[in-house]
Description:
This protein has helices spanning 3-13, 32-43, 66-82, 87-92, 112-117, 154-160, 201-206, 229-232, 235-242; strands at residues 54-56, 96-97, 107-110, 129-134, 139-148, 169-176, 210-214, 218-222. By secondary structure, it is α+β, with helices and mostly antiparallel strands. It has one domain (3-248). Strands 2-3-4-5-8 form a five-stranded antiparallel beta sheet.
Amino acid sequence: xxxxxxxxxxxxxxxxxxxxxxxxxxxxxxxxxxxxxxxxxxxxxxxxxxxxxxxxxxxxxxxxxxxxxxxxxxxxxxxxxxxxxxxxxxxxxxxxxxxxxxxxxxxxxxxxxxxxxxxxxxxxxxxxxxxxxxxxxxxxxxxxxxxxxxxxxxxxxxxxxxxxxxxxxxxxxxxxxxxxxxxxxxxxxxxxxxxxxxxxxxxxxxxxxxxxxxxxxxxxxxxxxxxxxxxxxxxxxxxxxxxxxxxxxxxxxxx
Length: 255
């Protein structure tokens, strides 16, 4: 399949950032401006009360074996990710930098083949995206992102990574700006985009936009070199890493 086509499908489904996993959204189109606005919101901090554009999986009560199962994912991922501490190795292995020219606190290097594969299997050694912080002249690997199709139930997510240990999230209820109005989507006061004031289909259509109930599928971040489960599956760290990103027009676990 043409890589450009895979890229477009990915952007409409998962995102990020990031993923072509639910065929019902393959009809939508995204411009560079749409992606910029989406990346801004994905890079922006969030929590349980994030608002109408963020949906979090419910944090479940711990069950026997949950911690061990989540830790097994971490232990499988660590050695597989070591090679990608050199970001050039990630590029050589098929990972692509998502919106490399837009300043971000955390960059997603995405493997689109793995993104498609996550619709059918879960492999801790093959995350959809690698998470990097930008340094002066390089990138520092800090974690990974796994994805699942939007159609997945929370029970299915729990089979991959227990929901008592990690919370998955979706970006939802986005009003895509009408053609010619994409740039204002990155404004903090915009009506459109994942930070926009519009969050219903009716409002969106009245404003001339295109309503997207789901922008991407399910996503979860993991920071495998942290010391505690709360830090490894931290929503708060995503929030911290992206606080400053919002100033440049630019996405755990909480017991």
